[in-house]
């Protein structure tokens, strides 16, 4: 599966879909990992090392 690297967080994201956003909100060397959620729940948005994005 190809990982998606975006520059802005999408307004609409299906539940459990993961995208990586490089918008400068995380510290240097890290990228925001956004996981879509079902209605009524907040998206998960941890900062992960950029090396995790390039793996697999």
Automatic annotation (TrEMBL):
This is Uncharacterized protein. It comes from Bradyrhizobium lablabi.
